[in-house]
Amino acid sequence: MIAASFAVCLAQAALAIPASVSGLLQISLKPVGTQLTWASNAFLLPLVVLALPFGAWGDRLGLKRLLVGGAVLITAGEAVTAAGDGIHQVWAGQAIAGVGAAALFPASLTMVTAGTQTTRARASAIAIYAAALGAGGLVTQILRGASGEDGSWRWPFALAAGLGVLSALLSQLLTRNSSSVHRRTLDTAGQIFAGVGLLALLYAVVEGGAGSWSDTGVIVGFVVAAASLGLFILVESRAQAPLLRLGLFTDRAFAVGSFATVVGMFAYYGTVYAVGTRVGVIQGQSALHLAGAASVLSVFPVLLLPVIPWLLERVSSRWTLATGLLLIAAGAFIAAGLPISDSSLASIVLALTPVGVGFALTLASTISAVNTTPVHEAGMTSAALSMLRNLGFTLGPALIGAIALRHASGQFDTGLASAPLPPQVKGAIGTIADAAGPLAVNAVPQSSPAGAARSIAFDALGSGFSLGLTVCGIAALVACLLAVAVRPGAGPGPVPEVENDSLRQTQQTST
């Protein structure tokens, strides 16, 4: 439990680090266009694409090997990033670390769930796992704090590499290697179609959100994604040992949990992105101010650790899930209603508190969907849930950013046209806005000629990100209503019995 919890905390922290130092990366490396966006997406792409294959590889190779190997890859990737002298090396390092995290997420959850034999033990284990995953956000803020207000972006990545070494040692010393007796074949065709489909989908969403949805590359990406994922479904429906058994989705508990995982994490991470942009980029608040706001989101999975096992054991999962989604929606709506001129930490904490509590409940409830499948399918189920959760994490910032910035651009153009400014000044400001959007105008010095339009950009961005937060709230509310409307069962149900031979345990000798 210690090794698995540390591994998932490391993976979640590594996921969040690029976004937490994006401002420092922009200052130091001066990326252009969408280059800064891909500092995070280089991590997220392998994380989503490789989750299902690692679920199968864990059944064959053993969970201990995946935990140790994943931590080693994160160590290597973060070290490459920290030593980088340009944005392209940052991409390479984050891609390596993303592969490691893709191994850690499903392997750690499988080890936790397959190693518990009673409903009470499973509920406690899931609560601890969810708390460790949530604590990854707190670790990110600590690592970001190591770089100081104006420090180097390299320190968080270097410290994460050190944590990777510690995670690998813990997994080597504290775990036994286990592989399922129901050893699945690698389902090569399924892995290829799933990988190509997800890669094309994420590329199209990210590039479409940052640029134009009508770009040829974006359209081709969506077409390739639809064709590949359609072929994946066809192949999996006929495979004797599928990468993802489609019959899982005939169970309403698992189907609702899967939908809520994507939508709930989309709403949560979209809210995180929108609030972080509002506080750090638009308002220009200090890193300490931003860290205080972000910590509110991460602390509740830890604070609620004594309560969540009781809820998972005694309360129907649909009500726990619905409550979590409703709280995320409420927090997003509160944040959407805050004036952009309100820069007080108290206001942001008021809005983010229900989001943090809702995240803790939603996370634990969606992870508990693994209870609906037999223990020998724990690797497959854990991989599917990890893939869906991280898909939601990826879609949140991409789509909410596109919605917010497009709306802000329209508002800015309208405001600039009606502003009482000389034509030559309007032309100069328009050139800046056309090249980099209202965010660039908001960042120009007040004393410069373009500074006369800063207030217009500021208000337009406030309106845009308020709309983005409203979309997050609506998405969470829709998922909440679905969780209530669909009856997945009376509760989490009994944990499938773990037969003596359901996991083949091999004690490893450590040197």
Q: How would you portray this structure in words?
A:
The structure is a single chain. The protein has 511 residues and is an all-alpha fold. Helix content is 75%, strand content 2%. The protein has a two-stranded antiparallel ribbon. The chain is globular and about 75 Å long.
Give a brief rundown of this model:
With 511 residues, the protein is mainly α. Helix content is 75%, strand content 2%.
Secondary-structure element order, as H and E? Answer: HHHHHHHHEHHHHHHHHHHHE
Nearest-integer average pLDDT: 81
Radius of gyration: 23 Å
Strand content: under 5%
N-to-C CA distance: 21 Å
Largest sheet: 2 strands, antiparallel
Runs with pLDDT <50, length 5+? Answer: 489-511
Structural shape = globular
Number of helices: 19
What structural class should be given to the helix and strand makeup?
A: mainly alpha
Spatially, the strands of the biggest sheet line up as 1-2
User: How many strand units?
Assistant: 2
What is the share of helical residues?
over 70%
